[in-house]
Amino acid sequence: MVLLKSFPVGVFCVLAHCFNFITIKCQTIHNFAMESSEDEMEVDDTEWKQHLTDSHLTCRVSVSGPSLSKRPTPAHRVILHFDLDCFYAQVEMIRNPALRDVPLGIQQKYIVVTCNYVARQQGVTKLMSVTDAKQKCPQLVLVKGEDLTHYRVMSYQVTDLLLSFCPLVERLGFDENFVDITEIIQKRLTCTPVSSFKGYVYSTSKAAEIKASFHPELALGSHVAAELREAIRDRLGLTSCAGVATSKLLAKLVSGTFKPNQQTTLLPENVDHIMGSLGGLRKIPGVGHQTAKRLQALGLVSVSDLQLFPLTALIRELGSPCAAHLKNLSLGVDDSPVNPTGAPQSLSDEDSFKKMSCVKEVMDKIQQLLGSLVERMRKDGRQPQTFRLSVRKYSASNKWCSRESRQCPIPNHVGHKITSASSDDASAQLLSLAMKLFSKMVDTAAPFHLTLINVCFSNLQSRAPAASTRGSITSFFAPSACPQNPSQSPVAHSNIDSSTSVNGAEDRLCSLSVMSPLPPENAAKSPIVRDAASPKAGPTQSTSSVPADASRPVTASRSSTCSDGGDADITATYRLPPNVDPQVFSQLPANLQTELIREWEQRRPIPKIPILSRKPGREAKDKKGTRRRSQANSLLDYFKPA
DNA sequence: AAGCAATAG
DNA sequence: GGTTCTATTGCTT
Known about the structure:
Elements: H1 9-18, H2 20-34, H3 46-62, E1 79-84, H4 87-95, E2 104-108, E3 111-115, H5 117-121, E4 128-129, H6 130-136, E5 141-144, H7 149-163, E6 169-172, E7 176-180, H8 182-191, E8 200-202, H9 216-236, E9 240-245, H10 248-255, E10 263-266, H11 271-276, H12 289-297, H13 303-308, H14 311-318, H15 320-330, E11 346-356, H16 359-380, E12 383-393, E13 403-409, H17 412-419, H18 423-441, E14 450-461, H19 512-515, H20 520-525, H21 582-586, H22 590-603, H23 609-614, H24 616-631
Parallel strand pairs: 2-5, 8-10, 9-10
Antiparallel strand pairs: 1-7, 1-9, 2-3, 3-4, 6-7, 11-14, 12-13, 12-14
Helix pairs in contact: 1-2, 2-3, 7-9, 8-9, 14-15, 16-18, 17-18, 18-24
This protein binds a DNA duplex (9 and 13 nucleotides) through residues 17-18, 20, 83, 87, 107-111, 113-114, 127, 129, 145-148, 152, 171-176, 285-291, 341, 344-352, 386, 388, 401-409, 452, 454, 456, 459.
């Protein structure tokens, strides 16, 4: 606790994600920040109250910095949730408009994972088997959807579009996004109050019109949601649902009230109603199968069961942070922030099958998976530090088929090759790595039966200014495609910032075009007016100054080194990271350039002392083995007794 | 750091 | 429920 004293509030929140017990304190700070009656959370239990009181006091002592006042007040938050309508089906209908008016299903293996609304009218549902779906709807047209590339590309276009409007965007899967527009609402409210809601308002009764004046933030939020949905449709051709509420939980719960292509706003006075009307505990986001089972063991099945259950008993069963969290959720209370997602933390590729039982097959499959994974990784531009191989084993007795995995660090020279030009080389060495991991999981001397193989890169490291690892600003300098950011035409302003938006100088939160990822040509012409790419981003640079020493650090892109196996580039002259467009980079103000270079240079040498020195014997053996095997194709090499 | 469970779409 | 193909977080060692 003493240590915490010196941390700014932001750090508390980071810590809160690492250690549950701090969540309470973070929460308490929140409450302090708004210093209203909010710090009297409903506490029906003395033990819990004591917890709160203790941390309350501690925090009062520990935070007295100026940063405290900057926190937005949770009570005034406006959170949007966007949910694309039958996303995969929409993507396929865009790719082939002839599919618009036919019943369409997206098939992965023998499953129809999703389908369009024409098909739904005929009784096809998500995750229905192909057999059942064809039976329900003989005219059903099926499109294979195992390759997620197109969906992923479109998914990030949606996220990027939202990001171009506001930096606080959190992805949930491929087809959902949360946006915290609290700040935008605060700004717009002063100049453009609205008198009605756009879309539906969740309510038990019919008359909802008059309530706009009682909830100006949410009313305005509904207009913003409508604008953003319209932008998503105009620019990307996708329809979506949206929910407008004061938390992620409520926004998500309310967004599906009217489907498809509709939006709904939830007013605080209807929180109890929407929570009570949930079918069961499973409907609460965050309550999965296992949690539902544990709760059911306590006799809890409905949301109100949980609401009324004594917290003490719940704590005994699940531990205090978890219990409190669940209970809060059941009451419709959720203070979790919208965490900007940024670039993905891992990339993986997998394939499932009925049966795989020979090593050659396994190797071919892994090679195939690695091929596409390495290519994706190369486009991303970051360098993975660890590699993981997962399998799913079939077991006739138990039918208990969960996944099993082994992972290992990626040797430096291999990792480097992934990002640079010769990725075939990298693939070969990764295959060798993969097979070693495979032999740790599967006794290849005995018969085996696999039903799935997955390859994964994680611990992705950009040589970019890591002010934050998430939402790295580097992605906005990338030439054609930043991490998962497919080429996107520079789109004209739609109505986003026309009617209701705040105009004027402070437009970093309101303007769409300014935040849009710019292709190099445009970037050269237009000023880069972007700050707040990440929450901790530096000062705004609002002019396209010609940097004094732009030429010095900008060396031509990498083309030379890469076939030499060693870590030779420690001594090499500085080059820009491969995902940074030199042209765009050169447009930056000189001082920012210098700062970025310094950051990159600090990260350049990646000696990884601990790895090299940890187990010299094994490490050395691995290296030797890797070298040899990339040439020799002997299967036996992979499986020696160790 | 490794491996897995839980959760999500 | 699990089925598909991902992705994230947190627990445990």
